């Protein structure tokens, strides 16, 4: 019954009405009583605690302090006058500041009388200051009714203009509690409530909107965050289970001749422990009768290619074909050359198909594919053309997944009766938390170990004013026989400005590194593919010493002799991109270097990025920092932004709760996959309701 009541349109709540209802809908997506109930404050003003000036932290928090004003003065500034009061308690002093209404305040404030002040504290010019504090005489404050924690709801400009202030929202919610008599139903099982000592739902809702104190608030928050993450995990895990049940896969049950021959006789190095583990994971997927859908994460240089090659051998030994798709021609070329060299020895045929494959070659490839004569096809998007028909594609590997959309992946799919197994490889480490929430329905393998003998890349930050020294260092490295990358930022391939930066840079480098002693390659997005490849090839063959480029070289390119990566205007790059670029060096036996060049003007976020880069070589660690700096939306690219439309949990800060939620969701599905047991009825019902309301479902499918 209460459930129905909560579905009432918000206009019917006393004090709302049609006009406000419309604003609530358009601005906050609040349509029903239920929506309002789960519209949570994003912070609270804690008036239960009193701070001492000596205890204040430089974190801009709201604080409540008891003290006296000992001095009041007007300070003249270019921008206008402000009124400044010196406020003291027995531990220190700070400033209270007013920019408006100064006359009234000056006339009414009492000197040397105890006040309670409340407001946001800033650290400014070596002092704490509080602009426009709420003030009350201590005597009045002691007489008045104690306000505990005041909730602050997210707001928008339009809400403010329409008079829907924080107070009004709070009033509406009070009204909602009255009309429903706060008889909200429980949405988690007794077992979960007991095991995790969770606050019951009605109490949690009350305390999230009207907390009595910090402790109760914390319990309410934990309960609601857990619930939110628990149901998301439950959905992801159910979806994964369904996929495994429904989508039958091709069964590769034998480890055959070619695989064994390659492993025993032609493997160019001993596999790392991580590579072996991942191969076992893939083998077990391929041998089961469900379709594999696996994401392989491994930092740049961790050796994903050999894992791909050996997985393809598994497919071929079982009578199937395989393909490997790369995001750029350069990469596809490199993969093709590498794979061909490895697999010629075991009699596996391999072809390359890209946009610049000649028509006659193309036709030959099409035929060989259809007849099954060709085992492996490597290429770019060209693989997705309708003319490309495999006889029996068993495994599709996609390198550097973030460049391919989901739709494109689906296209590969439909080339078969039974879908091929899919392995997506990425060098962009996705923090585990995020991977769990976004790809909770995929299987994930991680290569978390670099091949032995790699020297960690030395990374330094240098200002543009030190360019001469940097160039002297480059000359020394070139003298030792090494090669150097110099990379310019490219925000948009078409941006004329970026292009100009690159060309200016190129000219100045050409002056500092003159012919004939120095040969320079240049690669950028506005070049024709043939020219790009030509330049790239010259560098790969060691004919040029310096490669001046935009970020087109970011992914995958492998030139072991290159030992220096210089990144110009490094402050303009995101962390993951910097890390990707750095991964182009450190591939050989020599000590490698990454030099981050910037001007002196740096935002604090840029400083954090540079510092992270100079301190860490660990892609996962860097990804975590990136996630903290930018949030999940940006990290995953616009495609996925807004994906995690969470009401209360925070994917970064609530990492631990997420893990707990996943653990319990897994456990529940293991013990009661259909949620049939009476004690799980409440979970089942809530789950069904969530699916019906679609508010969470949207961001999963
Ligand atoms: P990525 O994961 O970035 O694609 P690659 O597969 O290109 O990495 O491997 C990077 C380099 O490391 C290659 O030159 C490859 O031959 C080499 N490599 C890979 N695995 C090993 C290993 N187990 N031992 C030694 N070298 C390895
Ligand atoms: Mg690679």
From TrEMBL:
This is ATP-dependent DNA helicase RecG. Residues 466-633 form the Helicase C-terminal domain. Belongs to the helicase family. RecG subfamily. It holds the Pfam family Helicase_C. Its EC number is 5.6.2.4. It comes from the Bacteria. It catalyses: ATP + H2O = ADP + phosphate + H(+); Couples ATP hydrolysis with the unwinding of duplex DNA by translocating in the 3'-5' direction. Plays a critical role in recombination and DNA repair. Helps process Holliday junction intermediates to mature products by catalyzing branch migration. Has replication fork regression activity, unwinds stalled or blocked replication forks to make a HJ that can be resolved. Has a DNA unwinding activity characteristic of a DNA helicase with 3'-5' polarity. It comes from Euzebyella marina. Gene3D superfamilies: Nucleic acid-binding proteins (2.40.50.140), P-loop containing nucleotide triphosphate hydrolases (3.40.50.300).
């Amino acid at each position: 019954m209460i459930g129905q009541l909560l579905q009432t349109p918000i206009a019917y709540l006393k004090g709302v009405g049609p006009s406000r209802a419309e604003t609530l809908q358009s601005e906050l997506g609040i349509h029903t009583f239920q929506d309002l109930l789960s519209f949570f404050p994003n912070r609270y003003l804690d008036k239960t605690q009193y701070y001492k000036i000596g205890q204040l932290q430089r974190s801009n928090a709201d604080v409540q302090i008891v003290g006296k004003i000992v001095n009041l003065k007007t300070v003249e500034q270019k921008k206008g006058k402000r009124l400044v009061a010196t406020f003291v308690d027995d531990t220190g002093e700070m400033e209270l500041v007013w920019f408006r209404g100064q006359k009234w305040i000056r006339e009414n404030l009492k000197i040397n009388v105890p006040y309670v002040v409340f407001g946001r504290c800033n650290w400014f010019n070596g002092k704490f200051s509080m602009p426009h504090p709420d003030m009350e005489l201590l005597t009045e404050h002691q007489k008045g009714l104690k306000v505990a924690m005041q909730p602050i709801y997210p707001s928008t400009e339009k809400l403010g203009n329409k008079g829907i202030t924080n107070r009004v929202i709070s009033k509406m919610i009070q009204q909602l509690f009255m009309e429903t008599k706060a008889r909200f139903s429980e949405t988690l099982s007794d077992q979960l409530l007991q095991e995790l000592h969770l606050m019951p739902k009605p109490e949690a809702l009350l305390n999230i909107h009207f907390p009595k104190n910090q402790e109760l608030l914390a319990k309410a928050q934990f309960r609601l965050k857990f619930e939110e993450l628990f149901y998301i995990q439950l959905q992801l895990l159910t979806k994964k289970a369904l996929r495994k049940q429904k989508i039958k896969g091709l069964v590769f049950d034998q480890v055959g001749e070619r695989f064994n021959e390659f492993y025993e006789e032609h493997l160019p190095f001993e596999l790392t422990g991580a590579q072996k583990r991942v191969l076992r994971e893939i083998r077990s997927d391929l041998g089961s009768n469900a379709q594999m859908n696996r994401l392989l994460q491994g930092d740049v240089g961790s050796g994903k290619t050999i894992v791909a090659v050996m997985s393809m051998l598994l497919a071929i030994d079982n009578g199937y074909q395989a393909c490997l798709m790369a995001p750029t021609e350069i990469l596809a070329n490199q993969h093709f050359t590498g794979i061909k060299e490895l697999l010629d020895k075991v009699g596996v045929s391999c072809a390359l198909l890209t946009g610049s494959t000649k028509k006659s070659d193309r036709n030959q490839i099409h035929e060989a594919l259809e007849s099954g004569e060709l085992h492996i096809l490597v290429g770019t998007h060209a693989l997705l053309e309708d003319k490309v028909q495999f006889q029996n594609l068993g495994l599709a590997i996609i390198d550097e997944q973030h460049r391919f959309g989901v739709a494109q992946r689906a296209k590969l799919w439909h080339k078969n009766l039974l879908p091929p197994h899919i392995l997506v490889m990425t060098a962009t480490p996705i923090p585990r938390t995020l991977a769990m929430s976004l790809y909770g329905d995929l299987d994930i393998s991680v290569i978390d170990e670099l091949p032995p003998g790699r020297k960690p890349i030395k990374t330094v930050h240098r200002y543009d004013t030190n360019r001469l020294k940097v160039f002297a260092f480059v000359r020394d490295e070139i003298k030792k026989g090494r090669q150097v990358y110099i990379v310019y930022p490219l925000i948009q391939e078409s941006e004329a400005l970026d292009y100009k930066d690159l060309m200016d840079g190129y000219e100045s480098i050409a002056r500092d590194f003159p012919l004939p002693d120095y040969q320079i390659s240049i690669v950028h997005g506005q070049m024709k593919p043939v020219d790009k490849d030509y330049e790239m090839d010259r560098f790969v063959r060691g004919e040029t010493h310096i490669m001046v480029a935009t970020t087109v070289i970011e992914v995958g390119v492998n030139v072991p002799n290159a030992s220096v990566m210089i990144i110009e205007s490094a402050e303009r790059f995101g962390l993951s991109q910097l890390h990707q670029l750095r991964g182009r060096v450190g591939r050989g036996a020599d000590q490698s270097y990454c030099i981050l060049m910037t001007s002196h003007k740096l935002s604090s976020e840029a400083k954090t990025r540079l510092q992270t880069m100079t301190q860490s070589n660990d892609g996962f660690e860097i990804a975590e920092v990136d996630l903290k700096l930018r949030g999940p939306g940006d990290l995953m690219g616009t495609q996925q932004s807004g994906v995690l439309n969470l009401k209360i949990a925070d994917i970064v800060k609530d990492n631990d709760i997420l893990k707990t939620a996943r653990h319990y969701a897994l456990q529940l599905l293991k013990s009661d996959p259909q949620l049939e047991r009476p004690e799980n009825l409440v979970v089942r019902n809530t789950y069904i309701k969530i699916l019906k309301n679609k508010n969470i479902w949207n961001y999963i499918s």
